[in-house]
Structures are given as structure tokens and as C-alpha cells.
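Hi W., the uracil complex you wanted:
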Amino acid sequence: MENLEQIAEEIRTCRRCDLYRVKTNYVPGSGSEKAEVVFVGEAPGREEDLKGEPFVGNAGKLLNEMLSKIGLTRNDVFICNVLKCRPPNNRDPAPEEVEACGRYLERQLEVIRPKIIVCLGRFAANYIFNLFGLEFTSISKVKGKVFEAEAWGGKVKIVPIYHPAAVLYRPQLKKEYEENFRVVGKLLEKKQPTLFDYL
Ligand code: URA
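Structure:
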């Protein structure tokens, strides 16, 4: 069974699409291999491209703040993106880039096998819904709701929420955003039933 570092090393030599030519650093993802929750964004932005780390710009600061509200740090979770290289000028990822890169995310998820996947924004939500055979409508319809899918011989919960950059752009969404994170916090609190619960 591979581990996250092996996948990251492979990403750092990737030439499966043309983005490697224009990026500064590959951004494979960061956090814990034992994470119960994985946050998935769209693609690295300027700061992430410079540092090789996901969500280290202003959107990342908001993500850190929201994590702390539910008693988590970045070390407790795993944070990554659908694309591991920055598209020039933060343009939308092209279908062939998603096709070339998506397998890395799938492999990362297979290694971690999280209980919960939080999709940050429409793009990640659309990708993750398709991956798990769910129908994606629009982020405003599904945000903050909990979906469930079969994965890795068990179940995974999928929680689509707005991208933190959208909340920075519309600060009036921040209260609702906190509530969305509390939903994730509550899911993590729920203990898995053991044999003793049935005796
Ligand atoms: N936006 C994203 O979708 N991902 C990042 O890592 C940073 C900004």
C-alpha cells in the first residue's frame, strides 16, 4: 500500500499536463495521513504556488480560523486541491488538466480513507460528487448539507460548502460558514457504534 509521501514525490515530477511548465512549485497537499476529514479545494493560487503548500493565502487564513472554531488545526486534517499545479492567473482548470491530475486526489483519498470529505467550492464539489456517483446541482443548493456515499467498503460523508475566497468576497456569508463548519465538527464527535452498544 502506498503512502502520502510517495504520492507527493510522484506529483513533484509530474508532466501529465502542461501546467508543470508554468508553475513555481507543485502543491500536493498537507496534513495528516490519519485525518478523519479531508478538505478539497480547486487549485493552488499565487501564494500556494510560491510556497508549495495549499491554502496559505487569505483564503487559507479564513480556513484556519474556521478550523479553530471546531477545535481543529491543520495538522489534524488533510488539505489539498483537485489540481496540484496553479493554472496561470488562477483561470478555471481545463477539463484535460482535471482528467490528468484527478487520479492523484483519488489515490490520496484511498490512502487516508477519511470519514468526511469537505468540498471547498463548486469546482471541488462537482468533482467529488461525480467521483462518488452523486448528482451535483449547484453549490448554493447543496452547501452545508451532508451527503453519504459508498467508499472503500464503507461509507464516506461529503459536505460541500462555499470556497473560503467566496466568503472573503461576501463577508455576510461568514456566520453561515461557521455553522457549516460546526456541522463538520458535530459529525466528528459522533462516535462509531461498537459491539457493546448493541448488547
Ligand atoms: N484556492 C484553492 O482552491 N486552493 C488553494 O490551495 C488556495 C486557494
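The domain at 4-185 is CATH 3.40.470.10 (Uracil-DNA Glycosylase, subunit E).

W.
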